[in-house]
Design brief:
single chain; 357 residues; alpha/beta; Rossmann fold; 2 domains; 15-stranded mixed sheet; two-stranded antiparallel sheet; 9 helices; 17 strands
Length: 357
């Protein structure tokens, strides 16, 4: 097979999987990667602040291409000199998938170097946080299929197409999620969850419905962790970074673009005991206020699920029911929050435990 045909086939394959492709020495090193969801502002547009390296010197331009047409033509974004370049491209309309193309042109308008990143979306970022039911512990059969308008910022802090399982704790660089001491331990934790029977959650179905209703792509930020309490999600621990759940989530949000459309929260089972329940509602309301403050979004929507039924035989449900009541009361005591009841949903782990008892 002729060499140019082989090279063309390789480039086509790289483009198909969203890998950044460059001609010459131009690279995009920061600010844009394949499968990224650029957060849109109140005007419905997104911006890219990116930078990289370049062999030549000249004007740096960028354009946005859709599946069938050019969405934004070549626009000056910066200058390349001394082997470096940086720039900002504003006004990107919500939508995608896009191909973002960058080039360096000389004084005569000739193209010196090019680079591109594929499978980029512009839309809304939603945080997935809480414990096991948000992490995803459903059986992985008949799960939601991936959707071209839904991507995920994974626990490894990498953008990719959203597919189950969204949360893989072993991928996280933060010790609060993964305490593996060796590469072998980490890989075992990753493969055990990635290839196991559990891992289905509510994130993808929510995102697909939001994309259908709003016409805007969705980026999910996967930051939930099963078996965790309100005390472990304490916003006061933010500055501990990856040593705390709240700090790890905050890092993820900033790395994903920092502009959050809203939060999905599912937690409460771990606080269904006398001591924790007594302060549950107070901590819950403080968490919502902290997220809105830290994400600089005072009117950010916050949606949460009321914990489901408690049916373990010979075990009192008083504290469990009190947490449910706290969650119901909070909905009427705060603005721009909404609760979803789950009392009519099927049980899995607790019903299994009840049968064992």
């Amino acid at each position: 097979m002729p060499r140019f045909i082989v090279l063309t086939a390789i480039l086509a394959a790289l483009c198909a999987v969203g890998v950044a492709v460059s001609a010459g020495a131009l690279t995009i090193q920061e600010g844009l990667v394949p499968y990224q969801v650029l957060p849109c502002g109140v005007d419905g547009t997104a911006a890219i602040a990116f930078k990289g390296t370049a062999d030549g010197a000249g004007r740096v331009e960028a354009r946005i291409a859709g599946m069938q047409k050019i969405v934004m033509g070549w626009t000056p974004v910066g200058e390349a000199s001394g082997g470096q370049w940086s720039g900002t491209l504003p006004g990107i309309p919500a939508g995608g998938p896009y191909r973002v193309e960058v080039r360096v042109v000389d004084a005569a308008g000739g193209t010196l170097e090019t680079a591109s990143v594929h499978e980029v979306l512009a839309g809304d970022l939603w945080v997935l946080a809480g414990q096991s039911n948000m992490q995803g512990v459903g059986n992985r059969f008949d799960v939601e299929e991936p959707h071209p308008q839904v991507h995920v910022f994974s626990m490894s802090h990498e953008w990719r197409r959203a597919e189950e399982p969204l949360h893989i704790l072993g991928e996280s660089p933060d010790p609060v999620h993964c305490k593996a001491q060796t590469d072998e331990e980490r890989e075992k934790a990753i493969s055990g969850w990635r290839d196991g029977p559990k891992g289905a959650g509510l994130g993808i179905s929510f995102a697909k419905e939001m994309a259908r209703r709003t016409g805007r792509p969705v980026g999910l930020i996967a930051s939930a962790h099963g078996g965790t309490s309100m005390a472990q999600w304490d916003p006061a621990l933010r500055d501990q970074g990856g040593e705390s759940l709240y700090g790890s989530m905050y890092k993820q949000v900033q790395a994903a673009g920092g502009v959050v459309r809203g939060v999905l929260w599912y937690q409460g089972e771990s606080d269904a005991n006398a001591d924790a329940q007594a302060v549950f509602k107070e901590k819950f309301k403080a968490l919502v206020a902290a997220m809105r403050r830290d994400f600089n979004a005072p009117e950010m929507p916050f949606y949460y699920v009321q914990i489901g039924r408690f049916v373990v035989e010979n075990r009192p449900a008083d504290d469990w029911n009190k947490v449910q009541a706290d969650q119901l009361a909070a909905e009427s005591e705060m603005d721009r929050i909404g609760m979803v009841a789950s009392i009519d949903l099927a049980l899995d782990d607790l019903s299994t435990l009840a049968r064992r008892d």
